[in-house]
Give the backbone structure.
Amino acid sequence: MTTLVTPEVRGFFDEATNTITYVVKDPGSPACAIVDSVLDFDYASGRTGTGSADAIVTHVTAEGLAVDWILETHVHADHLSAAPYLQERLGGRIGIGANITVVQETFGKIFNEGTEFQRDGSQFDRLFREGDGFTIGALSGHVLHTPGHTPACLTYVIGDAAFVGDTLFMPDFGTARCDFPGGSAAMLYNSIQKILALPDATRLFVGHDYKAPGRDAFAWETTVVEERTRNVHIGAGRSQAEFVAMREARDRTLAMPRLIIPSLQVNMRAGQMPPAEDDGRTYLKVPLNTL
């Protein structure tokens, strides 16, 4: 039996967006990857900040780490990515799923982006497809395409750890919503089966935590066997038909994420802001009665 390497994982919780950013380190070298970074954003003032990202910079610098990758599990709808800020300060290549092109085409139309907005994923350094491999120092990883929440969702499997983004939450909280353009509850069910087919002891690191009722502390690490047996939405052998009915009914009750409009415009550009207009300022659009 092959023994999986255990990467060193440090989670950084962003309270404003309930997002966890991960620094994933090769245990045999200083090499690391950063998964799902956060750029602070105050919607009322339109001001950005780098406090959350600077915590990552401080950690990487203090530990003497070398960043190989800045990875996105998907185009987030609830926070802005700090990938360009981190790349400028720490290096590394920015990666996301190859179906970013589907997301760019969809939201390029919704936000009426002109022809200057490239819809080919070229804003990113690497577009990953199912089964693609990558390395963090001497540590090997591979990619599972796990759509359903969005068309471009990926799970990064690195040694005995998997970074699932919004596909799964902690067992007591359930699974991702599927009502964004390009989402599908049936597709999400199939994607989750890929994750649950990993070895039982595989550590799963979730993209968000909201403290399920009755739980006092935030948490973001679980295992395949815990999700398979205890997940309140899909555990204990729930069928696809049961899951789809539950997920679609639940999604009809959910409001849009507070930061979906700014997040999508920025994140589909790999964290870059839209081009400045002729007055030198950058603007974000609000499409009325669309989402």
Summary: The mean pLDDT is 96.
